[in-house]
Amino acid sequence: MYYYALVLRHPKEGHSPVAIAEFLTQEHTDLASAHFMESLRHYEYILYGSKSLIHPYKFVIDRSITLLISITEVFFQETVSSYYTRCFRIVTGRHQSSDFQKGFVCACISHIMKSIKYDLKSSCNSKELYRFSMYCFSLLVNSCDLDTFLDRLKLTYTVFKSQRLDSDVASSIKKLQNFFEILGVSDDAIDVDFVEPIADEDGILDDSDESCASNPFISYIKDKLSDAHLCSDSQNYGINSLYNPQWMNVPESKWIPHTPL
């Protein structure tokens, strides 16, 4: 059984959020989710009329593609593909005024970090590597714009994809460590108990790795990463202890396609 709820912030400070609509179903599908939201809009229209319909500006979800598809369709009247294209125009400075007249969907940071923790514990073979990887993801999710995100992603790409430790790889590690200090990340902010068994994600509807309509972020980011420095074959340099090519599989399959979230 799945429970859906549309929750709004309480207008009075200090009060708990209020669920304005709730829905129980046995299916977590686009059809079920869209039915819930369309029903809400229908009864909202009956009660208040078309002129009083609210147009929410921001939705926070758990990275479920099912919810993303339903929200963009019902509330924004666009597909996920057109939504990502609109976001791409905005972050690259090619936006139109009409691009801001529709709302946006954001991923809940707690769901993001829990999902990342789950993925990295299955791909990192040491506590040091797990800690550094979590710090890097903290940097990425705290990027304030696309350029900052790409700069940091390129540094992590160089570090995790390089088998050897030349001066460029060492410089990339140092830059990331400086960013860690600026951001204030520490072991207190993440779970570094690497011996903890990997648990299921407690039923979190994290299906963002499923295929979705193509979007311009994928080719744009891959193009930016194509000239990243890698040090792999030279025997003149020492071993890079942070080498972990599997690390990039996580953002490439689950995060880069859904950068707008």
What can you tell me about this protein's structure?
The chain is 46% helix and 10% strand. The chain is mostly helical and 261 residues long. It folds into two domains: 2-107, no CATH class; 119-258, no CATH class. Strands 1-2 form a two-stranded antiparallel sheet. Strands 3-4 form a two-stranded parallel ribbon. The protein has a two-stranded antiparallel ribbon with strand order 5-6. The longest helix has 19 residues, at 30-48.
Which sequence of SSEs, written as H and E, runs from N to C?
A: EEHEHHEHHHEHHEH
Strand fraction equals 5-15%
Mean pLDDT across the residues is 84
Assembly level: single chain
Count of DSSP E strands? 6
Helix content: 40-55%
Low-confidence stretches: 192-211
**Largest beta-sheet details:** 2 strands, antiparallel
Question: Radius of gyration over alpha carbons?
Answer: 21 Å
Distance between the termini: 26 Å
Number of domains: 2
The number of helical runs is: 9
- Approximate shape: elongated
Strand order of the largest sheet: 1-2
Helices and strands: which structural class?
A: mainly alpha
